Amino acid sequence: MTHACPPLPGVLVDRLAGARRVAALTGAGVSAESGVPTFRDAQSGLWARYRPEELATAAAFESDPATVWSWYEWRRDLVAAARPNAGHLALARLESLVPEFTLITQNVDGLHARAGSRRVIEFHGNLFTNRCFAGCGEVTDVPRPCPEPPRCRGCGGWLRPGVVWFGEPIPQPALLAAQAAALECEVFLAVGTSAQVYPAAGLASLAQRAGALVVEINPAPTGLDGAAAVTLPGASGVVLPALVEAVRVARGTRQ
Ligand code: NAD
Ligand code: ZN
What we know:
Helices cover 37% and strands 17% of the residues.
């Protein structure tokens, strides 16, 4: 983990302070400092012998709903016990400083909303919602804990977690809203994402081609190197609070 904040280029602070429209794409790295593991971290305990790509698919659920459901119950417990960190809080604060701020998250943990972000596109859904696996349209809250996969009230089939699994398309409204935000923004922040899962990973280059300044915040190199004009190599819980505070000060002196 990188604890030091890299230097913040003046041009970046100025662009953010003067921008009307800003978009941010976040990935699992933003929640890492809350103790929620990324998929690239080794899974712990009971789940160490599984790869997420073997559990987070419709085929895995179809062949073994109980195992996939209990992995989600484990993840829900982990997230329910976690708290938003300084990175989540800084993004919520940035929303209050920028006239039009759109947060696109690949995270399914709901921590951005818990930190106070209001305009959030949950690109990959949310861990705590459930919908019918057969697709009858039923969407249901399930009281927790719920150790066994529940049955759909609409058709009697299985209920599944309301997330987007590997190989599944992004729901059209989320995709269109995220693409519009990427096309229209003046600054695009890509934070804590390895940029390997498409179409989310393509949003940064869409923004860059449309003229936005693309900024990457990540302690490790990623596939975004081509699109990012500025790379801030550090942890989001360190870099984002410093960046947002610099923007707040710069906005204050612009009146
Ligand atoms: P990823 O696991 O592919 O990549 C995580 C990235 O975060 C890496 O590039 C890593 O260098 C970076 N990182 C680690 N610690 C960081 C920190 N403190 N600050 C900033 N960056 C840090 O995650 P992804 O790109 O989001 O894509 C994987 C998929 O996994 C997504 O589809 C997502 O839905 C799913 N996922 C979500 C959660 C969650 O909701 N919290 C957790 C695990 C996986
Ligand atoms: Zn159903």
